[in-house]
Amino acid sequence: MDDKDWPLQSFNETVDTSDLRREWEEWHRSFELILEMKRIESQHEKLVLLLARGGRGLQRIFYNLRPVPEEVYPEPVPIPLVPKEIPEYDNAVLRLSKFFIGKRNVRIELELFRTLKQAESEPFNRFLLRLRTQAARCEFQDREEIEILQQVTMGAFDERVRDKGLEGTLNLDEVTNYAINREMLLKQKEKEKAKALKEESAVVAAVRQERNVRTAFRGKNRARPYPSGPKPSSNECNRCGSYRHSGEDVRCPAKKARCNSCGRIGHFGRKCRGGNKRFSYRETWEQPKIEANVVTSENEWNEELPRRPVPADIQQVN
After folding, report:
1. 60-84 per-position pLDDT tens digit
2. Is 86 a member of any domain?
3. pTM: predicted TM-score of the whole model, two decimal places
C-alpha cells in the first residue's frame, strides 16, 4: 500500500510538555495501524519505517537516547543454528515510550480528571470522550464508569443533565442518552427561534417599506403652500408681506402687531414705511385723548424723559 493511501503526519515534538505523552500515544497507535495494513513483519523494516514516518524530530530524539533495561537482545547461538532476530522495533518503542511517558503520577492524572468541564459550545459526545481518555490514565479499573458519571454530574454544562446525574436513578449510558437527546432538542428550538425571528424581521421590513411608499406618495401629491416661481407683488400683503391674503384681510397677524421699527400698530417691521427711526413717538409729546394720569404740557413730558444728571441737580440734592 502506498503512503498516499494511508497518510500520517510526522511526529510533532514541539507540543507542550504536558501533551507530549498523549501526542506519542496517539501517533504510535496510528503507526501500528499502518503496519497492520502493510503487513510488515520484519523488526528492522518496522524500525526503519518508524523513523522515516516520524520525521527528523523523532529521529533526533531516538538517536540521543540511551538503551533502557527493559530492552531485549537475544543471546548468540552456536553455528550452524540461525541466530534469532533482534527486536529492534520493540526496543525502540520501549525506549521512546519511557522517554515520553515516563513514570505516571496517578494523583496528577486524577486532579486533571476532576477539573474537566464541558464548554458551552462543546458537544456532549466530545466531552464524554475527553472524560474517558483521561479516566484511562487514572487507573480506575472497575470504578471507571462510576467516576465518569460523577464527573458528568459535576462538569456538564446543562443544568438538567447535572440534575439527572444527581438523582442517582440512571446509569452512565442512560444519562448520556438523555444529554444527547436534550442537546438535539435545544438545537432544534434554536433553529425554530431563528426562523421565527427571520420571518418577523421580513414582515417588519415589508411594513416599513409600504409605509415609506405611502408617505412618499402623500408628500408627492400634497398641495404646496406657495406656488412655484416668482411671487407677483400685487398679491403681497402690505402689512405682513404674505402672499396668502391681502392687506385688508382681518386674519392678517400684523393687523394688531406693533412695528419694531417705528413703534406703530398695524404692520411688521419688514413692511414699515416710516424709516428706521425706532420708537419716535416716545420723543414727541401729543395731547392724550384720556385725561387720567397724563402730563399736561410738553415741559412736563420732557422732564419725564430719562437724562443724565447735571451739576445743578447734584447741588440741589446737597
Report:
1. 999 999 988 888 888 887 777 777 8
2. yes
3. 0.47
